[in-house]
Amino acid sequence: MPPRTRSVTAAAIVAVIFGLLTIFSGGRALFGGAEMGAVVPVVLWFNFLAGFAYVVAGLGLWYRTSWAASLSIFIALATAAVFTTFLWKVWRGTPYEARTMGAMGLRLATWVAISIVAVRGGQAR
After folding, report:
1. How many CA atoms lie less than 13 Å away from 36 in the CB half-sphere?
2. pTM to 2 decimal places
């Protein structure tokens, strides 16, 4: 097995930290402890559940598994699909928090970048 590159190491660390933060913030919003505004439930639930996938993908990258790049790509595609759903709901007049727009853009950009690093780092098989 080839050694883990610095970029894959960084991507793995970012994925795990991002995942843990996502689980924590989503859990607070869903189960109490956080002030909620105009929440779009599909986005909130997706982000909370995706946090667990982020941690798994990060660990997969860390341990150079054969499936980590595929999971990273899947997370990016699923995030794009949920972001598209969110945008459609906003366009249809559903109330939303402006920070959700930025957060979804950040999530999508992060997972596209992690996916690219994973594929270029030789994680895809």
Report:
1. 15
2. 0.91
* Residue 62, phi then psi, degrees to nearest 5: -60, -45
What residue type is 55 in one-letter code? V
Residue type, 62: W
pLDDT value at 124 more than 60:
no
CB contact at 8 A, 118 and 68: yes
Q: How far apart are CA 123 and CA 101, in angstroms?
A: 30
Note the pLDDT tens digit of each residue in 66-91: 999 999 999 999 999 999 999 999 99
Helices (H), the chain: 6-31, 41-62, 68-91, 98-120
Beta carbons of 53 and 77 less than 8 angstroms apart: no
